[in-house]
DNA sequence: GGGCACTCTAAGCGAGCGCTCACCTTCGGC
DNA sequence: GCCGAAGGTGAGCGCTCGCTTAGAGTGCCC
């Protein structure tokens, strides 16, 4: 009642699982700051002031600046993995599932670009233990995409020489969207998602798009 | 005579254009440090000690730490642009030129990964003026690739719906190699270059590889 | 063989960093 | 109406940062 939900729109509330309200405000401020300037160029004073608090308040909710990055990275990777799993395990042909996976994964990287940027590009700033945890999640991400491609090869839908290499390329293409996507640019996340789904289906030699094809 | 050339092998001497010997050693040290830990996490003391000098020696050859990054970024972008121009302006079909451009561009990003990483991922650490200069070079990079794709569409070799979007995706795919490529990994830069050339030809709907095709 | 330009070092300055500590609120339970 | 837990602040500690300064070593020109 003191403060209403502040996020604008769309899908599930982004950082709803971060429970004390002040902790969530700090975390959102950290995501913005890390995305804009990078982890190492961001100061704890900057994060706190974006959240409307004093520098000391940060340490009531987080032990260190690195713990903030760790929490952000963990939640972000969970979300990314969830998106891919949902697409990979739905009903439909491998072609449909791959197109769905790529377009939704790309939509997330473009639409939630600030989060995705931190999640994908600040991995090296984590300490060894936290890094290992995140790397394990990334391997699961890789496995989901590889699984769809393997299904398509097995069913004869796809024509792929190097499954692991192609998986890597597909993921790389999607992830890099967080680097170049510009909110003020000419493309919407949906448009980029549709374009990329088409490009990826071409990469795997699919017989072409499920519905979105040219005439 | 006191100290021989130290680089191992291949192509043109990488930082040969940096003239006082000490300035080159500092610049090479900075490339390594920036690539490993990022610009903001690298200290001037770290750079100087990698070059075997005292911290103050850096400021004899460079005004600031940022000037070092600027010089690295400038030389690196010149090199990247040179690679693409060479491929784009050789003789041959659009298919051959695109395959050549992608495979050589990818070979550079994988083989000179440390340099490429700094060049592609530390742009935001530059000040407005230096950034503007580099962004102009990037537009030329984009224009070279777009030119080849437009040629292929005009000649009927390629089937592309969104030329600018596809150009962006091709470049994005190549650039991201600098993020994930691992020197100790299972693939050589040449293998990745060949794989990526094949994938890109598929993306543009080329009638398939010029020589490297399956049977 | 003295002067000078060039290169480099030892020492350290002011600033800003991540983080801590002593203390002050607010508020539900009894 | 008092109490303790939870959440917050202002001040500041110890440290390291980018960068500067005074001066030493070296080689080349005349």
From TrEMBL, chains A, B:
One of its GO terms (molecular function) is DNA-binding transcription factor activity. InterPro entries: Homeodomain-like_sf (IPR009057), HTH-type_TetR-like_transc_reg (IPR050109), HTH_TetR (IPR001647), KstR2_TetR_C (IPR041490), Tet_transcr_reg_TetR-rel_C_sf (IPR036271). Coiled coil: none annotated. This is TetR family transcriptional regulator. The keyword DNA-binding applies. Residues 43-62 bind DNA. Pfam families: TetR_C_24, TetR_N. It comes from Streptomyces echinoruber. Keywords: DNA-binding. Residues 20-80 form the HTH tetR-type domain. SUPFAM superfamilies: Homeodomain-like, Tetracyclin repressor-like, C-terminal domain.
């Amino acid at each position: 009642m003191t403060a209403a939900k502040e996020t604008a729109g769309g899908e599930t509330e982004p950082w709803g699982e971060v429970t004390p309200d002040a902790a969530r405000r700090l975390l959102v401020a950290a995501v913005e700051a890390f995305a804009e300037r990078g982890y190492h160029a961001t100061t704890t004073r900057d994060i706190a002031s974006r959240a409307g608090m004093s520098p000391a308040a940060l340490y009531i909710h987080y032990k260190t600046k690195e713990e903030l990055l760790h929490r952000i990275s963990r939640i972000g990777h969970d979300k990314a993995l969830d998106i891919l799993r949902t697409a990979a395990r739905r009903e439909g042909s491998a072609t449909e599932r791959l197109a769905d996976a790529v377009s939704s994964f790309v939509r997330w990287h473009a639409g939630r670009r600030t989060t995705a940027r931190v999640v994908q590009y600040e991995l090296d700033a984590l300490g060894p233990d936290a890094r290992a945890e995140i790397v394990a999640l990334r391997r699961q991400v890789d496995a989901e995409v590889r699984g769809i491609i393997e299904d398509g090869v097995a069913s004869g839908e796809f024509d792929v020489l190097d499954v692991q290499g192609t998986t890597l390329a597909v993921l790389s293409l999607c992830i890099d969207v967080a680097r170049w996507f510009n909110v003020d640019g000419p493309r919407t996340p949906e448009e980029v998602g549709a374009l990329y789904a088409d490009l990826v289906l071409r990469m795997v030699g699919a017989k072409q798009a499920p519905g979105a094809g040219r005439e």
